[in-house]
Amino acid sequence: MAIILKDIQKIESLNNSKLIAGSAGLNNPVENIMITEAPDVEQWITPNEVLLSSLYGFDNLSEKAIGQFMRSLHNHNCSGLIIKTSRFVNEIPQTIIDDCNQYKIPLIEIPKNIKYNDIMLESMQLLFNEKNLLLNQYKKINQQFIQLAIQNSSFNAIVNLLSSLVSNPTFIFKIEDNIASNIIHNDQNTHKLKEIDFTQRRPVPKKEYTNYQYYEVTLTDKSFKLLMVKIPQSQDQLYLGVLQENQILQDVDFMAIENAVNFTQMEVLKQTALNQGLRTYANDIIDDLINGKIASEEEFQATLKHFNLVETSNYRVTVLQALKEEKVQPDYYRDNPREADRVVSQFKLYWPNTVYRIRQNRIILIISEDQQSPEKMQDNLKKILQTLEDTHPNLNFQIGLSETCHPKDFKVYASQALKTLQIASHLNKRNQIFNYNDLGFYRFLFQVDNPEKLRSFVPEDLLKIYKDKPELYTTLKTYLEHNQNAKASANALFIHPKTMSYRLNKIQERTSINFSDVDEVFRLNVGIRVLNVLNDETV
């Protein structure tokens, strides 16, 4: 327990003292005691100090000046006043008495024969003993948490130990959109954090012995207050909470909480490292599975068992990528690992046994098709994309979906899903879900691995414009995409219709393109799609 003014009042040297005013402040905390004989206390006073004074020179002060002195004590959280009378003043000014009552500053009167030195020594001994007691208590608490860590601690063990130390319900939880999600609580705890409005949390002033920023929020029914503190370096906005249900927290309780925060942080880092190691191991296995690099049948069967895959079941390989302004974000999932985890979580809502591999620019997922119709699968994928875009209004997401396959064919169908996404997204950027079977004629692109061979499908006139006149190429591409509607094409390019006509004339002057020839227009469309798929350096 912290030293309060009532404890100071009980020391031997104050046996003959009298409490004159401010009895409502007898529980004020005390951290120091000082002597003052001047009204300029704001220059040196610290919070929670008791002041000793004989009011030397105060008989020359006006009531206004005395009032300013008292307001300064109040503003600096003075814990109490001990005034010696019959030396410089015979009685305490009424202004001081009234203000002590108003500001809840206990006012103790002592006779002139009491020595300041006795009061100072006894008070400091009391404060020293308390500090020493707190230090010993901190050592005991710290040793308990160290012992817990040696015995392989867990979140559950931490909250149970903390609850026993502070005699209150404790939690480890995370907050998303100001709604709490309870991760763990002590064994006897039945409270639900979802009922708390975390938008109303307020910072708690830092104490001398606290290292973290604490917040306090009142429960909806205003019965208790929850003290909460964020766990440092926790990516999931993890918090430690103590519900002050049984008793108000004391100084020694904060020592226990500080230790709990430190050891929870250690547990978070340990679990993060462990999960990272497990993920790296899983990624290596998945890479071998979808790249056909598993050497033996025994190893293949062990891999299927590890990921709960069934050799004879039907699966779809799914590839997802993020786009901003119709451009694929090449490092999005590398730079935003939490967002990658959100994507996986969305898939697991519909396919709990989803197997996944997170790369820097896309996520590869293997989902089961058994007991789910293609229509239901499409519907679930649309729901996932809608949720992702609702939470990421500046991004778009696209999915490439392979045909149905068995685990032994993952290598072929993983490539198929990726190529479907790459080709289809160039054909129609407005769509979000692309099936291999939806590509129709353009599936021929899968058969051509050599860029030189693929380039042979591009008409020479089109390739020449593409290389030499990018502006005319963009005009031609837009014109064909808008069914040769010059006005619609001009609007899409934000140019005047006359400018559009001028550019079309230039195209026909430089080429032998006949827009009325259906076959030729088809070849142009094929060539444009091929150019979309090819990188500039391969053309």
Description:
InterPro entries: CdaR-like_regulators (IPR051448), CdaR_GGDEF (IPR041522), PucR_C-HTH_dom (IPR025736), PucR_C-HTH_sf (IPR042070), PucR_dom (IPR012914). Residues 7-126 form the Purine catabolism PurC-like domain. The chain is of the alpha+beta class. It folds into 4 domains: 5-125, Udp-n-acetylmuramoylalanyl-d-glutamate--2,6- Diaminopimelate Ligase, Chain: A, domain 1; 152-270, 2-Layer Sandwich (Beta-Lactamase), CATH 3.30.450.40; 297-447, 2-Layer Sandwich (Alpha-Beta Plaits); 452-538, Arc Repressor Mutant, subunit A (Orthogonal Bundle). Helix content is 45%, strand content 16%. It has 17 helices and 17 strands. It has helices at 5-9, 63-75, 94-103, 116-150, 155-166, 251-290, 297-306, 332-335, 337-350, 374-391, 410-427, 451-455, 460-468, 470-481, 486-493, 497-510, 518-533; strands at 18-21, 32-35, 49-53, 80-84, 107-110, 170-176, 179-185, 202-204, 214-218, 225-230, 238-243, 315-324, 327-328, 355-358, 362-368, 396-401, 433-435. The strands form 3 sheets. A 6-stranded antiparallel β-sheet has the order 7-6-11-10-9-8, covered by helices on one side. Strands 12, 13, 14, 15, 16 and 17 form a 6-stranded mixed β-sheet that branches. Strands 1-5-4-3-2 form a 5-stranded mixed β-sheet.
